[in-house]
Amino acid sequence: MPRVAIPYLPDYQLRLHAPVASVWTPDLFDHPDAPPSQLAMEVGQRLASAILHTQGVYVYDIRAKLTLFVSAGVERMLGYPSTDFTTDFHYALIHPDDLPIVTEASILANKYVTERLDDPLSGLVFSVDYRMRHRRGHWVRVLRQNIIVARDTNGAVVGLAGILTDITAHKSTNDVRFHMNRPDFAAFVRRQQVESLPEPLSTREQEIMGLLLEGLTSKEIGEKLFISPTTVQKHRQNIRLKVGSHNVHQLLQHLDAATGS
């Protein structure tokens, strides 16, 4: 069967998944040129036999940058042959309004893991929901849940499984939500956002920015830091001057910060 074209965005750039994949540099792996993980593919096959008929699963080898396995459920959900469902094709099907948040959230999830290669990360699940283009032209709202299925001796993730669930009937809004069931992930995301600002903030400004992102008022921040609301306001003015048009809140508005287990 010929490869399916994506007609609705002819100017889509190639390698949409590249920014996410680039987080995993070769130096993180014990054997960067090792063949694709047979273990990861076998785990994916077992997952496919255990999930619901309305769900789909794929397995991606991060080290080899290769999709190892795609279940028949993906074709039932989206209409595309499983042989076409590479990771780049997956990202090309994401709604253009959702793609920037999905990409940035996925990059942050990968960065979180790369900074914890010595952590077993037992039971880690990264979840994000977004719209994908069905082969017939309509949009399907999917929940993607990523789990680690294989790691190397360095602790680097080799195999990553993604479980896709059609939640179109259960969600009527178009906002993207993402979450990781690790208690420190929300703080990690906030820190990454502050560090990405065009001009560095002082230690006190970083404190205040973090509390603002948690939703505290100037009065509440003053009480927490033992400074006056007027001082908080002055710091906020300095922060606004440094931040400029950089919208720190944009990504965080999509983060579900509930800790989970």
TrEMBL record:
Keywords, comma-separated and alphabetical: DNA-binding, Transcription, Transcription regulation
Domain of life: Bacteria
MF terms (GO), sorted A to Z: DNA binding
GO terms under biological process: regulation of DNA-templated transcription
PROSITE patterns cross-referenced by the UniProt entry: HTH_LUXR_1, HTH_LUXR_2, PAC, PAS
PAC domain: residues covered: 126-179
DNA-binding listed as a keyword: yes
All copies of domain HTH luxR-type, residue ranges: 194-259
Domain PAS stretches: 57-116
Full protein name: PAS domain-containing protein
